[in-house]
Design a protein that fits this description.
Length: 162
């Protein structure tokens, strides 16, 4: 188990567009394992390559239903919208309200390079969109409706679905 350092806001790495992952080998699997360990240790629900300083299109997500590792992911369909709170391990202590699709389908590759398709709804869809944005240097603060106050972060805000 190797915990990697999480890159924080202000580091230019978070603003770069990542390159495709072309090698599906032990080096990738070690990265995926480290990213998952780092995410779980930080009690996050997702982590993208640039957040550990790796400018490749690699993501790990676990919203409580098991780990998914979409490599070179692309959103192929979006449905509906949801408005809710979002945070990021690269921006500790902050949260914002962000509008995201309610349901997304992603085409990607698995850790062996095999094509996969992942469909996410609700919070899982939100996490997918958030992590994929990281691969293009986009952070949730770029698209949030507003930032939450510390009091709101402690409490609960109403989440809208439509
Ligand atoms: Ni993030």
């Amino acid at each position: 188990m190797a915990i990697r350092n999480i890159v924080k806001l202000g580091d230019n790495t978070l603003r770069k567009v990542c390159k495709p992952q072309e090698q599906f080998n032990l080096r990738l699997w070690t990265l995926l394992k480290d990213m998952a360990d780092t995410m779980y240790k930080a009690e996050g629900v997702g982590l993208a390559g640039p957040q550990v300083g790796i400018l490749r299109r690699v993501v790990v997500i676990d919203v409580g239903d098991g780990l998914v590792e979409p490599i070179n992911p692309e959103i192929v369909s979006r449905e509906g919208s949801q408005c809710g709170r979002e945070g990021c391990l690269s921006l500790p202590g902050r949260q914002g309200v962000v509008t995201r699709p309610k349901k997304v389908t992603v085409k990607a590759q698995d850790r062996h390079g095999k094509p996969i398709e992942v469909t996410g709804e609700g919070f899982f869809a939100r996490a997918i969109c958030h992590e994929l944005d990281h691969l293009d240097g986009v952070l949730y603060i770029d698209k949030m409706d507003r930032e939450l106050t510390p009091e709101e972060i402690e409490g609960h805000i109403k989440e809208d679905d439509d």
